[in-house]
Design brief:
The strands form four sheets. A five-stranded mixed sheet has the order 2-3-9-6-4, with helices on both faces. It has a three-stranded mixed sheet with strand order 1-8-7. A three-stranded antiparallel sheet has the order 5-13-10. The longest helix is centred in the middle third of the chain and has 32 residues. By secondary structure, it is α+β, with helices and mostly antiparallel strands. The model has no long low-confidence stretch (mean pLDDT 93).
Length: 425
């Protein structure tokens, strides 16, 4: 039997609008009242919210041709990079990059990840000796940016490039509040975009001149080699892919690691359990540390909302969806559903190491999405996060002087405020 998607009462939507609440509050209300497939109306047409694992898999993994990406929220920044590309262009771009982030491709970045982690650990040791106050969020962003820069160029991140690339998180944070008009939005962040473009142009020119870093050529060289045989890889597309990899390769990882430290501050026993799981460098400890990352991603998935548009009429787990309908998959709510996860509001990394503790359905856990448009950098992000934590957790514990009172739901879901701390041995 096919029925219409249940729709949230317009009066409740009006109350939410009048109260100026976060979009996640409206989503949560629709999910709680109406279930795994729900609708609400903010304009003339209903928007369908998808949180149930069967419906999630239907939209993202089984029928990506029926539910397509229309326009990426960060297109202003990343242009036609692989995250924003669609159709055949996306397939070509993804095919080129995919080999770099799986199997043998990943192995060439192992040493670069390790060197970035050692650099961060040495910096933390210096902070501890000097009893300095650091911002944990800034430190995690610094590490993640160093890691992806080494992987892109073969060079460690230098202070000048680091200062200029501060424009990347500035633009990302500004995106939700930019004007709807494209030209006006572009003008609002023109200075930041110009700095990012200048960094990209210098890196491309250096790579084109054969300037390899101490770790050898990086991902940027792969893009330049592609330009030799594929005319679509213009300087502009290479710039867009470079900036896409910078954004996707450091912003989400930095946010995840910041959340992880905040969660460990509230749940110190989880840190002790991970370190007690095995000796330094053992598979047991690595698995336990990676479980800390997975549980953090359950609370705060890298992709907290995945927008799609129905390209044709469809039946979604028994509900009628018309062509043109906006469909929002929300991993944030799926991961916190008590019907799927036992005590979902409790930080419990062991649910990722103990058999039978987590839902089996693939649509139940999707911090990087699932299906053909799942994040290319999943393994890269997990690897760099785990390696850094293996260096930091045994040595120092951050003691936060204050923690953010709010959460910001933008391109990522991030702590809304500074995270000052000192380090305890």
């Amino acid at each position: 039997m096919v029925t219409r998607v249940p729709e949230l009462d317009s009066g409740l939507v009006g109350q939410w609008q009048a109260g100026g609440g976060e979009l996640i509050d409206l989503f949560a209300q629709a999910h709680q009242q109406l279930g795994p497939v729900a609708a609400f109306r903010l304009g003339p047409r209903p928007t369908v919210l998808v949180t149930g694992p069967e419906a999630v898999q239907h939209v993202l993994a089984l029928h990506p041709d029926r539910y397509v990406k229309r326009s990426h929220r960060a297109r202003l920044l990343i242009g036609d990079g692989v995250l924003a590309a669609t159709g055949e262009a996306w397939q070509r771009q993804r095919r080129l990059l995919q080999s770099q982030f799986t199997g043998p491709g990943m192995r060439r970045y192992e040493q670069r990840i390790t060197e970035a982690a050692r650099t961060a650990a040495a910096r933390w040791a210096a902070y501890a000796r000097g009893r300095a106050v650091l911002d944990v969020g800034d430190e995690m962003r610094r590490f993640a940016l160093d890691t992806i820069w080494r992987s892109l160029t073969g060079h460690p991140l230098d202070p000048g490039t680091e200062r200029e690339l501060a424009s990347v998180p500035a633009v990302v944070a500004a995106l939700p509040s930019l004007p709807a008009d494209g030209a006006a939005a572009q003008g609002a962040v023109a200075a930041e975009l110009a700095r990012i473009d200048a960094v990209a142009a210098r890196a491309i020119a250096a790579a084109r001149d054969g300037e390899a870093g101490p770790d050898g050529p990086g991902l940027l060289h792969v893009l330049l080699e592609a330009a030799g045989t594929r005319p679509e890889y213009t300087d502009r597309l290479i710039r867009d892919e470079l900036v896409t990899l910078l954004v996707a390769g450091h912003e989400t990882t930095a946010t995840t690691l910041t959340w992880l430290h905040l969660l460990l501050d509230r749940n110190p026993q989880a840190r002790e359990q991970a370190l007690a799981a095995g000796a330094e460098g053992s598979p047991e400890r690595r698995q336990a540390v990676q479980a800390l990352v997975h549980e953090t991603l359950r609370f705060y998935p890298s992709a907290w909302i995945l927008p799609r548009c129905a390209a044709q009429d469809d039946v979604l787990t028994g509900y009628e969806v018309e062509a043109g309908t906006d469909v929002l998959v929300c991993p944030y709510l799926t991961h916190r559903d008590p019907g799927l996860w036992e005590e979902p509001e409790r930080f419990d990394p062991e649910r990722f190491t103990t058999p039978g503790r987590r839902p089996k359905h693939p649509g139940s856990y999707l911090p990087f999405g699932i299906g053909p448009r799942a994040c290319l950098g999943l393994q890269f992000a997990l690897r760099e996060s785990t390696v850094l934590l293996e260096h930091l957790l045994p040595a120092h514990t951050p003691r936060f002087r204050s923690t953010p009172a709010k959460t910001a739901y933008g391109l990522t879901v991030r702590p809304d405020g500074p995270t000052p701390a000192t380090l305890v041995a």
